[in-house]
Amino acid sequence: MSLNCGIVGLPNVGKSTLFQALSGAPAEAANYPFCTIDPNVGIVNVPDKRLEEIVKRIPTDKVVPAVCEFVDIAGLVRGASRGEGLGNKFLANIRETGVILHVVRCFDNDDIIHVENKIDPLNDIEVINLELALADLETVEKRFEKNIRIAKAKGTEAGKAAEAQQAVLEKLKKALEDGRPVRSVALTGDEEDLIRDLHLITAKKVLYVCNVDESAVNGGNEYVRKTQAAAAAENADVVVICGKLEAEIAALDTPEERAEFLEAAGLTESGLDQLIRKSYGLLGLRTFFTAGPKEVRAWTFKNGDKAPQAAGVIHSDFEKGFIKADVYTCDDLFHYGSEAAVRREGKLRTEGKDYVVQDGDIMFFKFNV
Question: With a threshold of 0.70, does the pTM exceed it?
């Protein structure tokens, strides 16, 4: 799976404003469709208060956070699956991402054009989801027809593989014809492996992002509640953000200024911080730390990785020559106050090659190349 998040939605729902706030990299934001043609890519620090707490107990010269990649993809329109509005190009961009952030307009503003000429988040969601499902249906049907020809070669490995895949494609075809996403179809791990090479868009996890005005940033509004209900029906999560407000926060120079701005707005945390953390989690990413006087760093690993794989995140030589790892949790560090106290309390342990790394582990790798 690609380890990035694609920001999608209809034109003029606030995608580029959101991206600009996220990454600090200016993306063209204008009051007309398709102002974003080529996708913008931003690398964003993952907010993690544990880093600050580690540094309080292990003073260091340098602090390096984990990062997450976001891609601002141009607005899709009705008919995108048939090539409308440069749809084929934009759908290909979505196909390359790991998680979909579906931005939904949840505010009224007569000065900002809505491509469907009405503010209706449920209709907006339906338009995007239908276009993505139709694009996947075309992919599935093409493979289905190809497999019919291949399956005629009875007894061959290719023929057997085609027959096995056909049974899964049957399930997906029916769901997509009904406008349902691939992720709504119950598949076994083996079945998922059989269709992995299709890179189906609607198989990706989705996070709905309600873009509201300042009046709804705390309590939401009717548009938000409708979006939340639609998301719940497909077991998806929702984040509520005021893109305009977040852009103003991102433009401030210091953390102190941002904290004051949030307090004045009645917020305890930036909506973008919630969005980044949830996106990171949906990608199946977790964080371990290394800590010392020269550097405290957050490292990204895939959920389920074992110690040698985590070591390889730092350097391939660490994985090749992995011997063992000294491990303790950041929670133990926070509780006991220092690494020395963690050792004294017997909370530091030595783990081998089969250890499954946990989010929040603080690790020191030993290797020999």
Answer: yes
